[in-house]
Design a protein that fits this description.
Blueprint lengths: L14 H24 L6 H26 L7 H19 L4 H21 L4 H20 L4 E2 L3 H8 L1 E3 L2 E2 H19 L1 H11 L1 H6 L4 H27 L1 E2 L7 H11 L11 H21 L3 H19 L10
Antiparallel strand pairs: 1-4, 2-3
Helix pairs in contact: 1-12, 2-7, 2-8, 2-10, 2-11, 2-12, 3-4, 3-5, 3-10, 4-5, 4-10, 6-10, 7-8, 8-10, 11-12, 11-13
């Protein structure tokens, strides 16, 4: 009978995986209880619709961020891409009407392509690349707008993307549901999504498996840009304008939505439905703190602390040799 060999491998029970699964639902329930006890109007139908409407832009952009983080990157330029796409809408809506969504998505795709090509083929960390393009895109916005907001008055555009068609439900929520179903199906079934997870898990293993790693990385950023473009179109319709400051700070909410949903910054794994939970947590937190009358500065502190807690709860430390 051969002797037993002790293994240094981790036990079958993955406590970090369990934490990732339970963290988001538990936090959402806790926040809901706290805000409901403080204000009985929190769980009214009117406020719930408001929460869902506020959530759509963050959620759609978060789906793109999900792909980027799962493949092992980060995109700090997403807020600027949303604003630049909204500017594209404002400048073309007079001619294109409801089809102004097309230049918005094209602008987003091009921004994502720039991020992907520079980070992948010039071998520059995505953090540095997207921090630089975040500033560059803002500069382009200021050049195009002269620092002034551009009003949107085309009624058919505002009705389709910002109005209400089914009962009292905002159209933006319907767009959010449609995009969620599509992304859920793509993330679950498409070969590209499996390749993204493989690249995030281990680039060396993915390369040995025949996956074109550079191509996958670029496509992930392009997808993220396209979704940010769609989010920018919906944000422009909701705001009736495109402003130079639109989307500032939104990248934090978008990244937090993905991380709060249990997707580790180390990449390799992720889920669409938990990203929905993460986005819902971010918006519930903002909505609840607004009801409590907390100033914006305090809300930023709360979100920052929550993001740190989420990273601590979801990071896979077994895959990180050195914390930098």
């Amino acid at each position: 009978m051969s002797p037993r060999i002790k293994s240094d491998c981790p036990q079958t029970t993955d406590h970090s995986a369990l934490m990732r699964k339970l963290f988001a639902p538990a936090l959402l329930v806790a926040l809901t209880i706290v805000f409901t006890l403080y204000n009985g109007n929190f769980l009214t139908l009117r406020n719930l619709l408001t929460i869902l409407q506020q959530m759509v832009v963050t959620l759609i952009a978060a789906y793109g961020m999900l792909y980027v983080i799962v493949e092992g990157g980060i995109d700090l330029s997403v807020g600027s891409v949303i604003a630049l796409s909204a500017i594209a809408v404002a400048n073309t809506v007079g001619t294109l009407g409801i089809f102004a969504i097309i230049p918005a998505i094209i602008v987003g795709l091009l921004c994502g392509l720039v991020n992907g090509l520079v980070s992948t083929y010039l071998k520059v960390p995505t953090f540095i690349v997207t921090m630089a393009t975040q500033t560059s895109f803002r500069g382009i916005i200021l050049i195009l707008t002269g620092g002034a907001q551009i009003m949107i008055t085309r009624q058919d555009f505002l009705t389709v993307y910002g109005g209400r068609s089914i009962g009292n439900v905002p159209n933006s929520i319907i767009f959010g549901i449609i995009v969620t179903i599509i992304i859920w199906y793509v993330f679950k079934n498409f070969a590209f999504s499996r390749e993204v997870r493989a690249v995030g898990g281990s680039e060396k293993v993915a390369t040995l498996a025949g996956i074109k790693v550079n191509s996958v990385k670029v496509k992930a950023f392009v997808l993220a840009g396209g979704l940010a473009g769609l989010a920018g179109c919906l944000q422009a319709a909701r705001s009736y304008a495109a402003t130079p400051t639109m989307g500032e700070g939104l990248e934090m909410d978008i990244i937090a939505a993905v991380v709060l949903g249990g997707t580790p910054m180390s990449g390799g794994i992720g889920s669409v439905m938990t990203t929905v939970l993460g986005a819902l947590i971010i918006v519930v937190l903002s909505n609840g703190m607004n009801m409590m009358g907390l100033p914006a500065d305090v809300q930023k502190v709360a979100k920052g602390v929550m993001l740190i807690v989420a990273v601590c709860a979801t990071i896979d430390r077994r895959r990180i040799g050195i914390i930098k």
